[in-house]
Design a protein that fits this description.
The chain is an alpha/beta fold. The chain contains ten helices and nine strands. The radius of gyration is 19 Å and the shape is globular. It binds adenosine monophosphate.
Amino acid sequence: MEIIKTVAEMSRWVQEQRTKGHTLALVPTMGFFHEGHLSLMRRAGELVDRVIVSLFVNPSQFAAHEDLDAYPRAFARDAALAEAEGVAVLFCPEVDDIYPPGFQTTVAVSELTSKLCGKSRPHHFAGVTTVVAKLFNIVAPQYAVFGEKDFQQLAVIRRMVRDLNMQVSLVGHAIVREKDGLAISSRNAYLSKAERRQALCLWHALQEAKALVQAGERHSGRVAKRVRDVLLAHGPCQIDYIELVNRDTLERSSTIDHRVLLALAVRIGTTRLIDNACLLHGGDKNV
Ligand code: AMP
């Protein structure tokens, strides 16, 4: 595996691979790899000859009060894990190379980013789409693989790709979970032992919602109320949102069908966790 640290070198490598006729897939990440990231890399490996994983903790998607400086990093371990997955290149550019002096362009998707996580993180998605657009331009991959754990991010990137006629096929990958059901996340590292136990409230709430829907409930408001009760039954937490939305438009849905997704954002202590699931059979296989 090559470790490439500059945009110029990455562009050269991409050019070379294209001349040789290789196909490329990109997996954008912020590092601190876990099984979620690794499964995205494996999925990418099934699609193309060469997988590029970008590792860039993107400052522009963090607000001033968020965890940019504290964000967990483990470069040597990440490099070893990516190499073991057969990744061709780990692309880890410096901040100044991605945002050189004078940088002043933003790629922003409007409506989809005003909902859900966008309400409490108003500039987050513009940071994501700008950096992802740059990565797509640098790597020009045939495929890019993203996790459905960040399903709003995936919906926003899908919109950007359509709206700007970007020549990349997006692949969503199901949420990878710990054995007990907690969605794996780099931010789980912030949880104390007690918080880790409490964090299972998200999984239990999704399970409860699914059971209700399987029993015939189709009223979103009643499902959301039960979800709130389950979350709070596990201990004090700050519920950022409980939303039942259409998975493509992210519009609220008052009734539940197979396009409707239950999305949760909950703060346990100081750690903000997100999770989601389709509740009707055939929506997805996550729950
Ligand atoms: P991050 O490093 O947190 O920016 O995540 C990089 C990619 O990994 C994103 O596409 C995430 O959606 C995806 N990802 C993170 N956690 C998981 C998970 N538990 N299951 C599937 N994909 C994940």
